[in-house]
Design brief:
The complex is a heterodimer of chains A (592) and B (177).
Chain A: H1 21-49, H2 58-125, H3 131-174, H4 179-183, H5 191-198, H6 207-215, H7 219-228, H8 230-233, H9 241-265, H10 270-291, E1 303-309, E2 318-323, E3 331-336, H11 346-362, E4 369-375, H12 384-387, H13 394-413, E5 420-426, H14 428-439, E6 446-450, E7 471-474, H15 492-495, E8 512-514, H16 539-548
Parallel strand pairs in A: 3-4, 3-5, 5-6, 6-7, 7-8
Antiparallel strand pairs in A: 1-2, 2-4
Helix pairs in contact in A: 1-2, 1-9, 2-3, 2-7, 3-7, 5-7, 9-10, 10-11, 11-16, 13-14
Chain B: H1 3-11, H2 21-45, E1 51-59, E2 67-77, H3 82-95, E3 99-100, E4 115-120, E5 123-129, E6 132-134, E7 137-139, E8 143-150, E9 155-156, E10 171-173
Antiparallel strand pairs in B: 1-2, 1-10, 2-8, 2-9, 3-4, 4-5, 5-8, 6-7
Helix pairs in contact in B: 2-3
The chains are: A alpha/beta (592), B alpha+beta (177).
Chain lengths: 592, 177
């Protein structure tokens, strides 16, 4: 009897996407330089247009008007050229991805042909063979056919994306190749982007609507949008973190290129100095995140620039940087910093995020993790450290609304793949987190407060959106700031106007208190111990890692403080010997 | 809490940023590097030759009172009999002045993967064996991992990303001979 084994056909090789990503990036840099020159030109013309004490009269007026017109004509040209430069950058990024995908597909084709040749050899060698062997050969042929179908789909997809990317570049240049287009407010914006942005919901429609809109776009539309409107997309709640990251990196690169060039030229405006400082701090922080490797391992989670808004809050700025992938991580944490934290503190905040990441992974269950330093609110700038001045709760109330909105955005961006989420509020950030959880339904699974001066509007852990059983508190017994919260029958803010609400470590509040002492702790209350919660190999970081990993029920408990009627509050942790690097208690990583 | 309590709080002290934080950190790093070289000698004498040591700069205290610290880590291939290698090392450490502590008295220690903490002057040495799991992947199953820190190792630094200015102190620590 003759048995037929259907062997699938060969696959033709695929052309490598043409182009040089590095060359394209170099072109983008050149275009950006030109754009900056135009901007400088325009700004200089505006300065010249101002009236001078030494020159008055009709000629001076005519000169001023001419200079002003000149500035107004060149300013939009500069903006158009910046958009084109950003677009070329996006094209280069996409080209690099496409070439990498081409390499993968080519390798798949080679492997497919090898297996196909093996199968042909085995079929030709088979003479009178048992039915089981025939079945095995047929099964191999079926698997190979499926494999071929998969590779063919990948090839079709790659070719479509290559065409879209090339069309994107063509549209980019043809949209800005006449003087009229270059001077237009939409110069350099592709038709794809213009069409897609017209359908973008407003922020008021909520992050779910934003996410639905984004999911309705083609890859080419998304690329075009990121190039044309990075400022709108970089802070759009509901968008995937990868899209926000791409938009924000583009903005950051453009800011650095432009402002550093102006600094070199001596044309940096006074109001741009803070912006440049904020951009540089963000660059440093992002480098920390991108380059981080968990000590003693090959685990390199990478960074994401989730929020970059260097002009917010009168120049204080907003920034959020994640370690790990916010789009896919099983466990996601959001760290909310406290008083006097500004963008220049972002590198330190990211370092905390790396240590938290390490702790969650080292003591974790193998789940993937992303930890994000979130400076998305206007922290108060009081002299708490110098004078014990406690700020009002206004910033916490505003920050609470912003934090809840940010978390809603993260949730909406992966509605079908929800992460276990933890919010960690440190210092004044714990008050901010309390506002988010009490007044705005903060949509996380667990909340940890560390070094808290008070829980704002919440009198009890059960007031929090997550329920009392998912509220955790870490308090170093020597932490001065943590003394400021209320407990017992005499409330400090009634008598001394200190504190920002209840002390979450107290038995009155009803949260789970975890161990957070440090072997370096001081003899009495001090501010250094207020800053030790993220120290490597500390009790606090160990317990925070457990909570982030979704095992808050397995933290090392500490007895709550209490306030007897006959005297001052008593903290049972005061006399316990602190530990460091002890497995299961305070070891948070391998020795490097 | 009464007024006395508030006064007591305000009396508490805290460290200040030194005039030259880098110099402070360098002094601590020199002590730690020297101790690490001593430990490399002890490992060699204990028959554990394949060891690498690195000095790391790390953030310690976070904002609003940031600090940086320096610590050394040693990874040493100790083979499958970690307990014997550990015992041999303990003898050598004792000979060079390291005193054991009871830091891990409450930890249930696997006899096949012993660990211990030792001190000498202001320096602390932690010795752990058998590696550990990070993200579900096991690292260093046949290794001894040693961490070296110093008392009061956290140096207060100015606000705003100072750590980048001392990263260059990170290095491979080489044996003396």
């Amino acid at each position: 009897m003759t048995t037929t084994i259907n062997i699938p056909a060969v696959i033709d090789p695929v052309d490598r996407p043409e182009g040089d990503p590095a060359g394209s990036e170099s072109l983008a840099t050149s275009l950006l330089s030109g754009a900056v020159r135009l901007t400088e030109f325009s700004e200089e013309a505006l300065l010249l247009a101002e009236s001078k004490w030494y020159w008055a009269g009709k000629a001076a007026e005519a000169y001023g008007d001419h200079a002003k017109n000149f500035a107004q004509r060149h300013q939009p040209m500069g903006e158009t050229l910046k958009r084109v430069a950003r677009g070329v950058d996006v094209f280069a990024d996409q080209l690099r991805t496409l070439q990498s995908d081409h390499t993968t597909i080519s390798s798949d084709i080679t492997s497919y042909h090898r297996e196909r040749a093996d199968l042909i050899t085995d079929v030709n060698l088979a003479g009178e063979v048992a039915e089981a062997e025939i079945a095995a050969l047929q099964e191999r042929a079926r698997a190979l056919t499926n494999r071929r179908a998969g590779i063919t789909t990948d090839i079709t997809d790659l070719q479509r994306r290559v065409t879209e990317n090339e069309q994107f570049l063509v549209q980019l240049f043809t949209g800005a190749d006449t003087a009229a287009e270059a001077s237009s407010p939409t110069g350099g914006i592709s038709a794809l982007a213009l069409g897609a942005i017209g359908r973008k919901p407003s922020a008021a429609d909520g992050p779910k609507a934003m996410n639905a809109w984004w999911n309705s776009l083609t890859e080419a539309e998304r690329d075009a949008l990121i190039a044309a409107y990075p400022d709108q997309l970089g802070s759009a709640d509901g968008l995937p973190a990868s899209a926000r990251d791409a938009a924000n990196r583009l903005r950051l690169d453009a800011d650095l290129a432009e402002l550093e060039m102006k600094e070199r030229d001596g044309t940096l405006l006074p109001e741009e100095k803070q912006r440049l400082a904020n951009a540089r701090a963000t660059r440093t922080a992002l480098e920390h995140a991108d380059g981080y490797v968990v000590p003693g391992t090959d685990d390199r989670p990478g960074g994401q620039l989730w929020l970059y808004d260097p002009d917010a809050f009168g120049g204080d700025g907003r920034v959020a940087i994640a370690v790990g992938d916010l789009d896919t991580a099983d466990d996601v944490s959001v760290q909310v910093p406290g008083i006097r934290t500004e963008m220049d503190d972002a590198p330190g905040g990211v370092d905390e995020a790396t240590r938290l990441y390490e702790s969650a992974r080292f003591n974790g269950d193998g789940s993937s993790v992303a930890t994000m330093f979130w400076l998305g609110y206007d922290t108060p700038a009081g002299d708490l450290l110098e004078w014990g001045e406690v700020p009002s709760e206004d910033r916490a109330a505003d920050g609470g609304a912003r934090l809840a909105a940010a978390v809603d955005g993260l949730r909406a961006s992966r509605a079908h793949d929800p992460a276990h989420m933890t919010a960690i509020g440190h210092s004044y950030g714990s008050t901010t987190t309390s506002y988010a959880a009490t007044d705005h339904g903060l949509a996380v699974d667990d909340i940890a407060l560390i070094g808290s001066p008070g829980t704002g509007p919440a009198d009890h852990a059960s007031d929090f959106s997550v329920g009392a059983d998912h509220v955790y508190d870490g308090r170093n017994s020597r932490d001065f700031v943590a003394f400021l919260g209320d407990e017992g029958w005499v409330r400090k803010d009634q008598f001394f106007d200190t504190g920002l609400g209840m002390d979450p470590s107290s038995e009155d509040f009803g949260a789970h208190r975890f161990q957070a002492e440090s072997p370096q702790r001081g003899w009495g209350p001090n501010f250094d111990d207020h800053s030790r919660y993220y120290d490597r190999d500390s009790e606090s970081l160990y317990n925070l890692g457990r909570i982030v990993d979704g095992h808050g029920d397995d933290t090392n408990s500490a007895s709550q403080s209490y306030d007897p009627w006959w005297g001052d509050p008593i903290d049972p942790e005061w006399d316990r010997d602190p530990t460091s690097q002890v497995p299961g208690q305070s070891q948070t990583g391998l020795a490097p | 809490m009464g007024a006395v309590g508030i006064l007591a709080l305000l009396l508490g002290g805290c460290s200040v940023t030194p005039a030259d934080p880098r110099a402070e950190l360098e002094a601590r790093a020199a002590t730690i590097d020297s101790a690490a070289q001593d430990v490399l000698d002890s490992l060699h004498a204990a028959g554990v030759d394949e060891a690498t040591a690195k000095g790391h700069v790390d953030g310690c205290q976070s904002e609003p009172a940031p600090g940086v610290s320096y610590r050394a880590g040693i990874a040493a291939k100790a083979g499958s009999d970690l307990a014997s290698a550990f015992d041999a090392l303990v003898q050598q450490l004792d000979a060079s002045g390291w005193k054991p502590t009871d830091a891990y008295r409450d930890v249930k220690i696997d006899p096949a993967k012993p660990m211990g903490r030792f001190t000498r002057d202001d320096v602390t040495l932690d010795v752990k064996t058998g590696g550990g799991s990070v993200g579900g992947k096991w690292y260093g199953a046949d290794e001894m991992q040693l961490g070296i820190t110093i008392k009061d190792g956290c140096v207060r630094v100015p606000d705003g990303g100072y750590i980048g200015q001392v990263r260059d102190l990170e290095k491979d620590i080489l044996p003396r001979s």
